[in-house]
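Lab notes, practical 5.
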Amino acid sequence: MDIFLRNIDPIAIKKIDEMAKRKSISRQEFLKSIVEKIAYEPEQNEREMRLEMIIKKNNQIMEEATNTISRFENLLVDLTEE
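Output from the prediction step:
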């Protein structure tokens, strides 16, 4: 699908061309990548938030497991000392 833009500030075009040149790609490729990034950004942010929640929950579970193991070790030490 094509998108046509008119009346873009020439200074903005020049800056876009410079950014594209630094990446060694055409203006077309550069703008296409930006448009696609903007389109998918909300989905990406949602995935990142879900991943952060999963990591946080995993950390909590690991901490609980570590505490349980510590208590079990202490119990074993107490039982073996008697």
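Observations recorded by the TA: The radius of gyration is 27 Å. The chain has a mean pLDDT of 95.
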